[in-house]
TrEMBL record:
Lineage: Eukaryota, Viridiplantae, Streptophyta, Embryophyta, Tracheophyta
InterPro entries listed in its UniProt record: Got1, Vesicle_transpt_Got1/SFT2
Protein family (similarity comment): Belongs to the GOT1 family.
Biological source species: Camelina sativa (False flax)
Name of the protein in question: Vesicle transport protein GOT1-like isoform X2
Intracellular or extracellular location(s): Golgi apparatus membrane
PANTHER family: CGI-141-RELATED/LIPASE CONTAINING PROTEIN, GOLGI TRANSPORT PROTEIN 1-RELATED
Alphabetical UniProt keywords: Golgi apparatus, Membrane, Transmembrane, Transmembrane helix
Pfam families in UniProt: Got1 (PF04178)
Primary residence: Golgi
Amino acid sequence: MMSFEMNDRKKIGLGLTGFGVFFSFLGVVFVFDKGLLAMGNILFISGVSLTIGFKSTMQFFMKRQNYKGTISFGVGFFFVVIGWPILGMMLETYGFFVLFSGFWPTLAVFAQKIPVLGWIIQQPYIRSVCVQFRIH
């Protein structure tokens, strides 16, 4: 059975993942700076690998149902590195949503438990939009 304890490797992995998201955000804010975007991608992938382990990362990205997302994310990363950051980020975003689509329900339950955000999500108008688009 998988261990859910928080050892040093997982802490470093979560930190790298967070920095990866932060650098990617900065890359978008600074008009698609390819250096920041590439660094964000590298930190994100290395952080995920450290958090869940190299073998689990490879199994996740190489699942048959994840091929479309993996290829899209990889091609997007390649486009960012060669200097086409807008096209690369569009492909990466699509790949990210395809790869992590199974985690959205878990994320929605978690978001509802956050004090202010949970209250906002449970408002009738927001709930009707979520039901319409099957987010919740």
